[in-house]
Amino acid sequence: MAVTEHVTFCRICEASCGMIATVQDGKIAKLRPDAEHPLSKGAVCPKGIAMVEVHADPDRLLHPLKRRADGSGFDQVSWDDALDDIGTRLSTIRAEHGGGAIGWYMGNPGAFSYSHPIWVKGFLDALGSQHYYTASSQDVSNRFAASAMLYGSPTIIPIPDLDHTDLLLVIGANPYVSHASLLTAPRIREDLNAITGRGGRVVVVDPRRTETARAFEHVAIRPDTDAWLMLALLHVLFAEDLVDRAALARQAVGTGWLETAVRAVTPEDAARHSGIPAQEIVTLARDLAAAPGAAVYGRTGSCLGRFGTLVSFLMDAVNVVTGNLDHRGGAVFGLPPISLDDAAEKSGLDTYGAKHSRVGGFPDVLGAMPATLIPREITTPGEGALRALLVSAGNPVLSVPDATSMRAALGQLDLMVSIDLYVTETNQEADYILPATSFLEREDLPLALMPFARTPYVQWTEAVVPPAGEARQEWQIIEAISDRLGITPSSGKALRALGRLGIKVHPRRMADVLLRTGRDGDLFGLRRTGPRLTLAKVAARPHGIQLGDSLPTGILRQRVRHGDGRVHLDPPAIIGELERLLADGRAAADPNFPMRLIGLRELRSHNSWMHNSPKLMAGSARTHAARVHPEDAGRLGVVDGGAMRIVSKDGAIQVAVKVTDEVTPGVVAVPHGWGHHGGWQVANAAGGVNVNVLAGSAPEDLEPLAGMAFLNGIRVRLEAVESADSAVLHARRRLPTPPPPPRAARPAPSPQPAA
Ligand SMILES: Nc1nc2c(c(=O)[nH]1)N[C@H]1C(S)=C(S)[C@@H](COP(=O)(O)OP(=O)(O)OC[C@H]3O[C@@H](n4cnc5c(=O)[nH]c(N)nc54)[C@H](O)[C@@H]3O)O[C@H]1N2
Ligand SMILES: Nc1nc2c(c(=O)[nH]1)N[C@H]1C(S)=C(S)[C@@H](COP(=O)(O)OP(=O)(O)OC[C@H]3O[C@@H](n4cnc5c(=O)[nH]c(N)nc54)[C@H](O)[C@@H]3O)O[C@H]1N2
Ligand code: SF4
Ligand SMILES: [Mo]
């Protein structure tokens, strides 16, 4: 029996932990942490190890599937038959309605591949379509939008200088469980503990006393009120003259507007909205100003509210005003060997507001439009209506607001194609489901993550095992479809011209060129100093190469893309948002929906897709449950282990209850990504419900500056349910949830466009 060991890295979350895979007879037998990885140094989490189970999963999709004509299910088809039919149908749609009728939704795992996102965007750009959707509009788009305004490019994003900070203010992130986001720091627990260990502080602002908050200082906040907190911090900083005037003069423009604007929000105002005592806000502002190095860092809890772009903007404004931007121990810039911001700028991909969505008129963010609007883009007739959708590595029926509209609209498409590891809640609506390789079956580079690495590094991995069954990499599938459409899937005009001459660029070649022309590259022999990277050199050191000890400071001018080299603190759109916030603060609360719903990430879940691993799902704790405070539970008469209904203006769910004082009174926390009825039997049997039916999908429900879904802070009410209902709920844990009624196959469009 052939047993081999392979050095690789995990690509489930941004930590990108080094792993060693044991391969037996071409199959993954075991995964363990790689002690020699420069950043993770032997750290992994249970999800990474559970990829063994994904590989051995009897439910994994191994062959292309085609929807049966009567809609009763799917049949296995050959790749050639599937690709030929997809090519023919897309060609017909393109001939009749233009390439702009074809769209793509790429989900979160796509971001971990060095090739997949570039090929998806290239495919749409070659078609001339702006129907580009990603998980970003449910995750991080307003962080990008804020950066576009502050720094002149959506790709310029500071990260906390973990090694030197004296005070880390965490706004809506739970790195103990999420393992950090927009920050590659696989040993984040140690990093945070090191801050307090050297006498510093970590303060966690969160409506829930999370795993991270418990380990450090917790400031409980009412959901969706972070903008008030940030404004009040700025108010105190200016009012008490705690601002770093020298840094402001050197780094920023628009300080005058900001200083005047924040006078409108006192700590008392912020206290009324956020529930944080005014004195605590004042003290926090003073502490931020007094610390030699302090950084405000926020993640999804700061992004998924109604004012996410404003919050992201203000978090950075606090860093600037306290002199902590580009400052040791403050918020600094990563030093990746491949500068994606340069590459994006050169190829014109670093856009914000270059285009606007057909429905709702939302600005694009890095080319992406709000995924929440997919159903309306399908059902709203007219030029540019979405008629064909390809979905890769995404499960928008569970991850985007309003599953009912999403599923119904997907059913109206002329063609839907999915590329995934499983039959999911989303691709049950597809005409074709194509099997993707897992990350262990593809070569890779953490391309999109390196700008956020706490320590500069680079790593290359080869595929650890050959593709299971007939699985193929996404870029290969995109090339095969593109061939049939006669296009070259590239965003670059030069590459498209080469494509017409039959010259294609393999992603491996692209990675080599990017590495060699990057800051640490060999410049094809022209550079005489430094690591002089080539792909071959990186590959020769499979555990990864550390490219520096810490992150630099004093490089702001190099990073900022505004012509004046300054951070802009007075963008017109932010001025408008501030007015919207103040008006919102004056609006009366809706007595029908007195509670606020937030999300909750679990150590053993990953969004919607790791619920089929028996190991991750073992144990009675792995049930889907809403967390409510004992006071709220008592008032409602619901008990721990019972059930309740959560009702919003958009929907209602019935869910099991866990009573815990870790949530702030008035708040209910429910994990997303549950409520399965796909081809994954363990996940189906786990029960639970899709919490996103409570989120709204109308354009008015989206955050206006980035089109982001409103998923944290949704107004809800709780209702007690009869005990019989709760019995039903628990029974469901054993019975698979019935799938939605079958949808008949779409008739293949006639090859002749109708006259
Ligand atoms: N185990 C595990 N790890 C993951 C994932 C997973 O599903 N499971 N998902 C990955 C993904 S895709 C991402 S984007 C990252 C996300 O990384 P994080 O953002 O660090 O993860 P969350 O646990 O969602 O943390 C968000 C926190 O914000 C809080 N919050 C909610 N509303 C508000 C609010 O209005 N204000 C404030 N201040 N806080 C609020 C929540 O209580 C929660 O603790 O995690 C990644 N890592
Ligand atoms: N209420 C609420 N909703 C949320 C969030 C929240 O905090 N609260 N978080 C949001 C966030 S941050 C995110 S990132 C989104 C995630 O939302 P999505 O990206 O839409 O969904 P995932 O659950 O990540 O589903 C990933 C899919 O990709 C498949 N897959 C895994 N690996 C691969 C691969 O290598 N190739 C291919 N082709 N397929 C693969 C999986 O089987 C799965 O079907 O959810 C968002 N939705
Ligand atoms: S922390 Fe993230 S990258 Fe590391 S093993 Fe877990 S899922 Fe994989
Ligand atoms: Mo995410």
Question: What do you see in this structure?
Answer:
This protein starts with a strand and ends in a 24-residue tail after the last helix. The radius of gyration is 25 Å and the shape is globular. The chain contains 29 helices and 28 strands. It is α/β, with parallel strands linked by helices and 755 residues long. The strands form 8 sheets. The chain has a 7-stranded mixed sheet with strand order 5-4-19-18-17-6-7, with helices on one face. Strands 23-27-24-26-25-28 form a 6-stranded mixed barrel. Among the domains are: 47 residues, Single Sheet (N-terminal domain of TfIIb); 186 residues, Dimethylsulfoxide Reductase, domain 2 (3-Layer(aba) Sandwich); 147 residues, Beta Barrel (Barwin-like endoglucanases), CATH 2.40.40.20.
- Here the CATH topology of the domain at 157-336 and 554-559 equals Dimethylsulfoxide Reductase, domain 2
Query: Which class of the domain at 157-336 and 554-559 in CATH terms?
Result: Alpha Beta
In terms of per-residue confidence, which ranges show pLDDT below 50 for 5 or more consecutive residues? 724-738, 751-755
Strands ordered across the widest β-sheet: 5-4-19-18-17-6-7
Shape: globular
> Could you tell me the mean pLDDT?
95
Termini, distance in Å? 63 Å
Radius of gyration: 25 Å
Helical content stands at 25-40%
Q: Based on helices, strands and strand pairing, what is the structural class?
A: alpha/beta
Which ligands, by name, code or SMILES, are bound? ligand MGD, iron/sulfur cluster, molybdenum atom
Total helix count?
Answer: 29
**CATH level-4 homologous superfamily of the domain at 157-336 and 554-559:** Dimethylsulfoxide Reductase, domain 2
Q: Roughly what fraction of the amino acids lie in strands?
A: 15-25%
